[in-house]
User: Fold these one by one.
Assistant:
Number 1:
Amino acid sequence: MVTSNYLVIGSGVAGLTFAVKIAQKFPNKNITIVTKGNEEESNTKYAQGGIAVVLNEEEDSFDKHIQDTLIAGDGLCDPEVVDMVVKEGPKRVHELIEWETNFDLNPEGTFDLGKEGGHSEYRVVHHKDITGFELERALLKRVYQLPNIRLLAHHFAIDLITDHHLEKENTNEISCYGAYVLNQHTGEILTIKAQHTLLASGGIGSVYGHTTNPIIATGDGLAMAYRAKTKIKDMEFIQFHPTAMYTPEGGSSFLISEAVRGFGAYLRTKEGHRFMLDYDSRAELASRDIVSQSIDSELKKTGDSCVYLDCTHLDIKAFKNHFPNIYDKCLEEHIPIETDWIPVVPASHYLCGGIIVDKDGKTSVNNLYACGECSRTGLHGANRLASNSLLEALVYAHNIYLDLCDAPKVNIPENIPPWNDDGTSIPKEHILIQHNLKQLQALMRDYVGIVRNNDRLHLAIKHLDLIYEEVEELYKKSKVTTTLCELRNMINVAHLIIQQSLNRKENRGGYYNISNIKKASK
Ligand code: FAD
Ligand code: SIN
């Protein structure tokens, strides 16, 4: 048993920012962060483009950023949330700078601002093309300086502790009291009790197999929240990034930042046709949903496996300075961008929906907060504007911190039981886990991809049910392992994506279902 004032699940931008703030404010309270891989492994670490924020008020304005966000979200953003996040953004970025995060500057000493799809102005602050890496570095450094934070790497949160574990009769009102956590090195399961728990567990890319996310993005927090009966919404809005580097084997793919298109790169078919001009007047800088759907349509027309990003006309010296990581990665793959085009395809990138939270980051379960990619704040609507995700995590980590500054004490029940795995044994059938994982990812890729239809969605539910039954059977008789829990979580997440896709009767933003068009034209 471990007792903590605050339990934070996840060490990306959302979890670390909150932990630093609350630890600084209350030096006598303790904060436990659990994270399932190395400290820095997260979607945050791989963020390239940067943080969208209005810092140049001569050319840019809050109004323009608000409008761009609302347009990308295709009518489904919460305008009050958009207003709040955009206006809070500059303060949160200045705070990062106080915490020694480095952002690129121009020779004149002003911020070097990038541009990405859907943005009407240059407003993305960045650190070369490794903004997320720099953020993690600065935040982790801060965490290590604070003695009241205990960061437990290689600790996997299995499930939230709720009234359900106390076998309470009245479960209308559910409260959270911490989490059961697996020490991935020893196999021991800790009961971490906490007055307040923050889910900052990131995204779901691995559910699709082909993704820009690292393999740890398995939607664990969402699945835990779902099992705890927390309200979850907008799961149908999966954002596919248009330009993941193409590799025939798929899997986790290297991202070619949208900022490269902001820098002037063109998208071309194998024959050299600059096809985005046929789809949108903003061409390569249309919002992501439009670019991904256009690429999908070109690939279906031509039967090709990828399209190409052409950088050959760009100032290569400036490119190398701006995107050193991308330049080097391309060279490593034998693609000299001075002469060769980069093969790219869309890949699953970001979940716009998630655990519903209010403006203070509160979920529908008492004492449980959610922040970052696992949460659904209303900022993104049907499609997230590029580089608004890091911004959202920073702003909401601050809001949650403010809310908890005044929160009343929570009495943690005495009778929380330890994890019970009586009658279970270590799973021997790893092939079963691997096989079901591959089936799940193929199912999501083939039936629940960029362009959906109801027949395929119904088939997906049917196939998913079979996978679910097989995995639940195994789970019931097994001691928990990370891979088994992750698979189980991904099945929960896939179910939510498919079910909420079927519930959506109208196409918006990143959601495109052919059956809805047929219905509308009848
Ligand atoms: P994450 O950074 O993903 O952190 C989640 C944490 O939770 C991890 O530490 C993980 O190990 C931990 N965790 C998960 N499950 C468990 C569990 N069961 N137990 C314990 N720990 C767990 N957004 C932008 O705004 N700008 C960009 O330029 C940008 N570029 C991107 C580039 C790439 C390649 C990718 C993948 C994403 C990019 N995004 C960008 C999106 C953005 O990076 C993420 O949405 C954001 O970083 C999410 O932060 P987070 O803290 O919510 O989650
Ligand atoms: C990118 O650099 O293209 C990713 C930006 C984002 O996902 O916001």
Number 2:
Amino acid sequence: MPTLSDPPKPTVVLSVGGSVLVTGDNDVGYLRELATLLKAEGQRSSLAVTTGGGRTAREYIRIGRELGLTEVELDDIGIDVTRLHARLLAAQVGPPTPTHVPATIAQAVHELHHASPVILGGTEPGHTTDGVAALLAVRLRAARLVNATNVDGVYDRDPRTFPGAHRIDVLDWASFGRMVAETTRVEEAGQQAIFDRLGAGLLARARIPLSVVHGRDLKAVRSALRGEKFVGTRIG
Ligand code: UTP
């Protein structure tokens, strides 16, 4: 039971990419360990977590696009997949397992008054779960946002294409904003930019630092959540 003399818990937001959650490589072991970590960190801080849709979302979006569905309809399909991942993770973090994944930022904020961690997927068409995480961080006046993705930080060039690419350990918002804009194609469902454009702008404006870590490196995820030194990139 918290007392008045307890120091206030920091509020932290974590965005876990779908490409980290379900990869086909030891997903069950990873989800178990991630859930254990989230349970522990959810006690130390007020923790909101978003889950991405990854390759499952992209596969459904690809089929829908071939069928001629609109971008909004494709976004909705992506959102449903992100919620599937939220359900999977929340069930492992529970009990109690919430019956419904929070569908809006307002619902997630409300839930966070009663429980931590709160886990959700997407909310509205037109952005990604990184964008949802940024919106939540701003609403909650979070101390930091951690982006757990499938690379161990932000690189000067795409490390998947350029083996000589270098990780950048510290970045300012202006440089990061330019990098996000360069990797964002026309706004379309299922695209993979380094971060959500709307989200990057919101964080910069609110001066909430963003930490980018490899989601499968749970030591880095834990350190970044705690605001300690971590392997990855710090923006802000
Ligand atoms: P993701 O957040 O998974 O996007 O949402 P992503 O960029 O593909 O990220 P990774 O690969 O998981 O890290 C998947 C898709 O769902 C729709 C978008 O089309 C997005 O590309 N979506 C998601 C929304 O429209 N709104 C949301 O709030 C979330």
